[in-house]
């Protein structure tokens, strides 16, 4: 997965990133539930390509190289908690979604190596992605032990994951308690990028730990973020990356697809946890942002080929279609479909219960 594009043409000179290849794994896996059998085979072949990239860029100490030149040389960089978290989340999703033992061997090895890095994490988004990944693995370990290899890995999860979940959950709650004020319900003094991942991770954690303070912090921060990202008429308005957002000021431009996707991610999880249809509506509005319900009234996504423009600027759409933007659109579309399925199932159960009540 090449990182950037000029229009729809990949910029090979700018190489690859682990961030995008991890997102690509996640995207392919969530779309498995929405495609026909022959398309599933194509998605699984792509997953193999992206998994092999992660296997190649993982260091012996469990961390991941993020930036790679087109000639496949590793570029000089600082260690990135964000990159680590995205990679581990993708691997956790892969472990829970892939059925092939041959694929799971590689995923298991990368996960076991990666968790040597957990004590080194220090940033909010690194905490968040890793917390969500650990919780997903912990949940799965309680329900799936289909063979000896799987059972052995789940025993490893049961031994190691609970204490890491407790620590990462505590780290995020501590950040929230330090920074939250009456009119600033947030983990940090500035709203920057990919903000939805923070309340999302606490919602995922709540499904495992069932801590009421975790649920409270998750919903307070998500509701705050929704208010900050809602414009006139209810359209989604991402915080601009040309200055971000503080209690005193807010940047309107440039608006990035990844921020819309992360809000949809958190709102979809909140709908699953609470059943509140207001969160389902947020997911719908996030999807609509890609199709033109935004500040410029123009679509960013091309539903025919699945590509997406890189953002909204004060002078128009950034027509370049990089990996991050395209994957953000595809993930948002899949989340919308999942939420609609969940809503349909919820209403079906309500009708059944009502019919029994009338007997």
From TrEMBL:
One of its GO terms (biological process) is carbohydrate metabolic process. SUPFAM superfamilies: Six-hairpin glycosidases (SSF48208). The keyword Transferase applies. The keyword Transferase applies. Keywords: Transferase. GO terms for molecular function: transferase activity. This is Glycosyl transferase. It comes from Alicyclobacillus cellulosilyticus.
């Amino acid at each position: 997965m090449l990182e950037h594009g000029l229009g729809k043409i990949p910029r090979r000179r700018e190489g690859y990133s682990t961030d995008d290849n991890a997102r690509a794994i996640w995207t392919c896996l969530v779309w498995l539930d929405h495609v026909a059998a022959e398309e599933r085979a194509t998605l699984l072949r792509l997953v193999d390509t992206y998994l092999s990239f992660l296997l190649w860029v993982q260091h012996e100490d469990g961390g991941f190289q993020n930036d790679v030149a087109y000639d496949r040389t590793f570029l000089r960089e600082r260690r990135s908690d964000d990159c680590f978290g995205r990679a581990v989340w993708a691997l956790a999703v892969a472990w829970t979604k892939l059925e092939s033992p041959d694929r799971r061997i590689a995923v298991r090895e990368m996960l076991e190596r990666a968790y040597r890095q957990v004590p080194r994490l220090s940033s909010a988004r690194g905490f968040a992605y890793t917390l969500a990944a650990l919780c997903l693995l912990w949940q799965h370990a309680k329900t799936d032990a289909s063979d000896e290899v799987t059972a052995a890995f789940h025993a490893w999860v049961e031994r190691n994951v609970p204490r890491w979940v407790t620590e990462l959950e505590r780290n995020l709650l501590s950040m929230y308690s330090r920074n939250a004020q009456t009119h600033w319900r947030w983990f940090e003094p500035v709203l920057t990028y990919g903000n939805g991942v923070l309340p999302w991770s606490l919602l995922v954690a709540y499904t495992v730990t069932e801590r009421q303070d975790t649920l409270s912090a998750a919903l307070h921060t998500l509701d705050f973020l929704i208010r900050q990202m809602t414009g006139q008429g209810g359209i989604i308005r991402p915080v601009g990356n040309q200055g971000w957002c503080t209690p005193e000021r807010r940047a309107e431009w440039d608006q990035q697809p990844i921020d819309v996707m992360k809000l949809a991610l958190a709102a979809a999880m909140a709908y699953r946890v609470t059943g509140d249809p207001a969160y389902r509506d947020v997911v719908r509005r996030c999807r609509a942002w890609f199709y033109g319900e935004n500040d410029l009234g123009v679509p960013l996504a091309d539903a025919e080929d699945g590509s997406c423009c890189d953002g909204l600027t004060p002078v128009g759409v950034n027509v370049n279609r990089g990996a991050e933007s395209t994957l953000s659109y595809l993930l948002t579309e899949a989340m919308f479909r999942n939420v609609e399925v969940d809503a349909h199932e919820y209403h079906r159960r309500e009708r059944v219960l009502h019919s029994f009540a009338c007997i």
